[in-house]
Amino acid sequence: MHFTNLADVIREAIRETEAAFFTMDIGIKAGPAVTTSAHEPYVPPQADVTAILAFNGSIEGGVHLSAPFHSAVALAAAFSGEEISDFNGTAKDAIGELANIIAGAVKSRICDDQIQLTPPRVVVGRDHLVGITKRQASTKCYFKTDSGPFLVEVFFSH
To answer: Where do the domains of the chain lie, and which CATH numbers do they carry?
Structure first.
């Protein structure tokens, strides 16, 4: 399995998701990407909302979609097509499903039928940390919208 272009895979998954599922233009712009090796200490994303899906099968790892509250609410509202003013159950479901769609798009681009995705979990809390117990490589892609930033991270060991 080859992950050298994982940042491009993530960006394309975001572009595909934006084109197919967002009901209004929220102005998603790609920012920098950061890739770390499994030999570097893992630094989890710091955010107020993180949706997490795990990969099981031929690789171990997963996908994080992390954002501050205001960005998560705006993403959830744009994705669901509903008016959302705070991070409620509808917003949580929308962020989880958005992360699920992005993870599925990443999985399909990796072209590995042996990978299964777990259902998304959404962690909410100011400046929470999501950690992993193994050393894994990671690619984080940062994005900004008209309503604030978010990041998508794929972490894995192979």
So the answer is: 6-157 (3.40.1550.10)
pTM: 0.82
Name the token pair of 115: 């990978």
- 149 close to 68: Cβ distance less than 8 angstroms: yes
Contact in structure between 7 and 110 (CB atoms under 8 Å):
no
Alpha helix positions (H), the chain: 6-21, 69-80, 89-110
DSSP code, position 145 = E
| Contact assessment for residue 117 and residue 104, using Cβ atoms and an 8 Å cutoff | yes
Instruction: Give 115-132 pLDDT, tens digit per residue.
Output: 888 999 999 888 666 665
**Interval 61-73: pLDDT, tens:** 888 899 999 999 9
